[in-house]
Structures are given as structure tokens and as C-alpha cells.
Amino acid sequence: MEFITLNNGVQMPLLGYGVYQVTPDECERCVTDAINVGYRLIDTAQAYYNEEGLGNAIAKSSVPRDELFITTKVWVSNSGEEKAVASIDESLKKLQSDYIDLLLIHQPFGDYYGTYRAMEKAYKAGKVRAIGVSNFFPDRFVDLAENVEIKPAVNQMETHVFNQQMNTREVLTEYETTLESWGPFAEGKNDFFTNEVLKHIGEQYNKSVAQVALRFLVQQGIVAIPKSVRKERMAENLDVFDFVLSQDEIELIKALDQKESLFLSHTDPASVKFILEYDKTMRP
């Protein structure tokens, strides 16, 4: 495994395992498989409703807690300083851990300034090793980063070959904030898994389309958290550190960038309302 050093000196694995859309019932088994395969970064969120499953897997694992890097995120309904403080403690309880390695604001809505203040307090209290944000586009990111004491260590964004976040990356560089990719496979959209450019490059290294796409990200210092419920696919996704893409190959992949989301727009009122109501409609 390769690591990246965050802006506060904490080391974070470049490749991890995400449990978005992993059901609460499956989560413990999936995380156990992921840890056994070799993953050390595991990414969850309050809004995934599977923190308990992750906590059970951690508690039962033979891998020491300090060798794992656990991320969770504060959801919009827990925004604001008072609610966020309580939700952080609840996440710690569900994760069965004394600390969280990386804590993010999940969405740039609600009282996220109050949420960030709660996260700064948790950081100073030793409950969290690093704090950051998720889905913060450049304008909101800069506004937050310029008005907080502790600069965000990470911004987790939809990032894949079709949406490479080049403008966001330029802004994050100024704050030494690491970009983390959610949806590194674009959830299969745009015929991702049959893309001819990725297939051709993969053939040169005996690698799959997915492995080429992950290599493209981690080779540029972008953390990726692919999700799979199949142990053999988890292992395949982790196997991307034994080859290096050439600059010409990187340029070919860069040309795939469509510079827009394949999922939803955070500037669309309907999408914002969907996010604000998410936990009311999606809670198990």
C-alpha cells in the first residue's frame, strides 16, 4: 500500500474500501473481507446506516486499530455545532473506537460552519485525527477554508475519468488539501467498463478497465475508495501498485474528461431538496 501525507502530517492510504450502498446486514462481512484482502482505509458515513457493521468488523479483526484508517461523515440532519457534537460521539460508539481517523462534513448544506466548529473541537480533544469536507465545490470550499481555524485536510468529491475535477484540484492545492474520489468507476455510467481507451491501456499491462482507472487516480495523488461486495473484486481493485501509466497514457485518459457530474448537481434546487430529505426517505 502507498500513502499520502495530509496537510496536518497524518498519513492516509491512497486506496481504500467504500461501503456506500452496502446494506447494514452485509457491512460487517464486506469490511472483514476487505481488511483480510489488505485494505486499511475504510470509508463510511452516518447516512449509510452501516457504521455499526464497520464497528463490529473492526472489533473482531486481528488487525490492530492503529493500522486501520477509518473515515465517517456528519450528515446534514446533524448539522450545527450542538447536533454535530452529539452525532460524532454516536459515530464513535457505533464504530466501537476511541477515535476517528478522518471526519468529513458530508454535504455543503445546513449549518456546516457549526458542524465544522464541532469537528475542530473533536480534533483538539483527540477524538479525530484529521477533518475535512465532502462535495464542497470550489466556491464553498474557499469560503469555508478561509473562515475556519483548521484547514480541511481532505475534500471528497465525485472524481473519475469522466469528471476529473481539474478546477477543484487547482483550488485544493492552495490549501494543501487532498482530493479523495468517490465513485471512481462512475458507477458504470457512460459504458465505463467497456471504454476502449481504458481497455487498450489495460491490455498493455494485463490489467482491467477498473484497475487502469484506479491507477490513473492514485498515480496523481488522488485517494480512491472503490466499493464491491465480492472479495475477488476487492482484491483486484487493490492490485494497482505494480504498474505505472506513461505520460502519454495519462494524457489519453485526461481527454475523456467531460467536466460535469454524472449523478446530480449541487446547484440544482431539486437535488438540494433531495439531499436535505435523504435521511427521512432512506433510513432503514
TrEMBL record:
InterPro entries in UniProt: AKR, Aldo/ket_reductase_CS, NAD(P)_OxRdtase_dom_sf, NADP_OxRdtase_dom
Record Pfam families: Aldo_ket_red
Keyword set includes NADP: yes
PROSITE patterns with a match to the protein in the record: ALDOKETO_REDUCTASE_1 (PS00798), ALDOKETO_REDUCTASE_2 (PS00062)
Keyword annotations from UniProtKB, A to Z: NADP, Oxidoreductase
Keyword field contains Transmembrane: no
Domain NADP-dependent oxidoreductase: start-end pairs: 21-257
UniProt similarity note: Belongs to the aldo/keto reductase family.
Record-given protein name: Aldo/keto reductase
Taxonomic classification: Bacteria, Pseudomonadati, Pseudomonadota, Gammaproteobacteria, Vibrionales
